Amino acid sequence: MQCPPWNPLYSMAIVLSCSGLSLVTFITIGLKCQTNIKNYIYLWRVKYNRKKGYFPLTNADDFEYHAFVVYCDADRNWVHRTFLPKIEQDEGIKLCIHHRDFEVGESITANINKYLEKSWKVVVILSNEFAKSEWCQWEVDVVQERRRRYGKDVFLLIMLKTIDSKHMTNQLRALLDSAPSLRYQSWVGEDLFWVAAIETLRKPLEQVTTALL
């Protein structure tokens, strides 16, 4: 009876504090786990589509390009003088290279979205310079959507140069965790690298999201 009456402002302060703390927690978890959340949504869609009778149909012949190549400008010399001749000229695999194939006058983002849809697979040339490029980080986010739709076999990840730990972002780590990568080394093991790269590019996809009409 001697206690002072409870101030309603205290209740409001407690409720608002708890609500704010919960909101911050949910936002933090969402930002850190957004890749996993998208994957769970994708798996749910796959299970739903399977029940509706969806199964794989697409192959390399359904696309204009066999693979879309993502690389930074610092690695252009290797891509154009080593990778491109070996894959296109020697193996007859048509690649989409943005310095050569993008449409003049279109924005870069529009070109990426357009030609990514025209490509069956995605080749990502990873290096320390690639990791430092904000634009390349954006492209990684874009191509991750392709993995969620078609599976890990859609990627050919090539580690051209070792990435420093300070430049290893969450996006790159998620990409490397999603599919195995090949390490390129001139002379030592180079023949084995090319055999593995070509086999990966020619490997069929295990797609489950295209409907039979």
From TrEMBL:
- Membrane among keywords: yes
Q: Sorted alphabetically, which SMART domains does this protein's record hold? A: TIR (SM00255)
Q: Name one GO molecular function term.
A: signaling receptor activity
What InterPro entries does UniProt report for this protein, alphabetically? TIR_dom (IPR000157), Toll_tir_struct_dom_sf (IPR035897)
Q: Which UniProt keywords apply?
A: Membrane, Signal, Transmembrane, Transmembrane helix
Task: Tell me the first and last residues of the signal peptide.
Answer: none
Q: Name one Pfam family in it.
A: TIR
GO BP terms, alphabetized: signal transduction
**Which residue spans traverse the membrane?**
12-31
Q: Where is the TIR domain?
A: 63-201
Subcellular localization is given as: Membrane
Q: Which GO terms describe its cellular component?
A: plasma membrane
Q: What is this protein called?
A: TIR domain-containing protein
Identify the species of origin. Mytilus edulis (Blue mussel)
